Amino acid sequence: MDYDDFLELVKRRRSIRKFKPNPIPDEYVDKIIEVARWAPSGLNSQPWDFVIVRKQELKDRIAQIIKENFDVLLDEGHRGVDLTKLSPSDRMDLTTPINVSYRNAPVFIILFGDIRTKVALPIPVQSNEDLFLNVYISSLASAFLYMHLAATALGLASQWLTAVRLPPVQSVMKELLGIPGEMEAYDMMVVGYPDAEPRPKLLRSKEKMVHYDYCGKEDFRTDEEVNDFARRTKTWTLATIRREAVN
Predict the structure, then answer these.
(1) Interatomic CA distance for residues 236 and 96, integer angstroms
(2) Do 53 and 177 touch, CB atoms closer than 8 A?
(3) Cβ atoms within 10 Å of 18's Cβ, excluding its own
(4) CA separation for the pair 1, 204 (Å, rounded)
(5) Number of structural domains in the chain
(6) Cβ(69)–Cβ(168) under 8 Å?
(7) CA distance linking residue 10 with residue 64, whole number of Å
């Protein structure tokens, strides 16, 4: 693969939230996992395990757990807030329901981290919790990104679901799937054939994010510029979620 092919693959990797129920071949799932196994990790500790969920009753239960806990977060966010005084993007943030149409996808792949792999790291890293967590999470993130790129290369769509990290979701989900206590859910990838087309992606200007050698404060964005992009990208993202949330 040359650079242009790789760049095109990266551009095609987009989060999709609506899937067709059509099954995907077992070999595709195996290929996704095989790619993830080769991801970089701190001192080659490979702190990952993959749980593949295909049974519809389990997928429905996981989606329901996520929705119930997200609804609680929405209720807490509404409490004491006058929505009429919020910006349109902040109002959408508090009123956009969690999308559960992804439950139609044929496969969920949950990436679990094994905290016990800490012993593979150097003693100075083990003894510094912040440093350890940075290495541990970065390792899991690498494997997870590889999974998404592999799915894209196979002509599949994927969604990145971080809500499985919520403690109440994780607790119920681990019990539901028989996951031992020392394992921690990192994220869940929903994978299948897309039933929606992604909108053109909103990207920051390259000139605003690339810096060379010595950089002064004037080379970076102002608070106003950061806030402006945050408002625009939040509006863009939430509008996409709402558009794809129709069951």
Answers:
(1) 13
(2) yes
(3) 21
(4) 27
(5) 1
(6) yes
(7) 31
Domain that holds residue 34: 3-244
85 contact partners, CB below 8 Å, separation of at least 6: none
Specify the 3-state DSSP secondary structure of 55: coil
The pTM of the full predicted model, rounded to 2 decimals, is: 0.90
Residue 189 belongs to what H/E stretch? strand 183-194
Q: 61-98 b/e with 16+ CB inside 10 Å = b? A: bbbebbbebbeeebeeeeeeeeeeeeeebbebbeebeb
Full pLDDT tens readout for the chain, 247 residues: 799 999 999 999 999 988 999 999 999 999 999 999 999 999 999 999 999 999 999 999 999 999 888 777 665 555 555 555 556 666 555 556 666 788 899 999 999 999 999 999 999 999 999 999 999 999 999 999 999 999 999 999 999 999 999 999 999 999 999 999 999 999 999 999 999 888 889 999 998 899 999 999 999 999 999 999 998 988 888 777 776 655 4
H helices of the chain, in order, are 3-12, 26-37, 56-78, 88-95, 123-126, 129-153, 167-177, 223-244
| Distance in angstroms (rounded) separating the CA atoms of residues 207 and 198 | 25
CATH number of the domain encompassing residue 23: 3.40.109.10
What is the distance between the alpha carbons of residues 5 and 14, in angstroms, rounded to a whole number? 16
Say what the alpha-carbon torsion angle 179, 180, 182, 186 is, to the nearest 10 degrees.
0
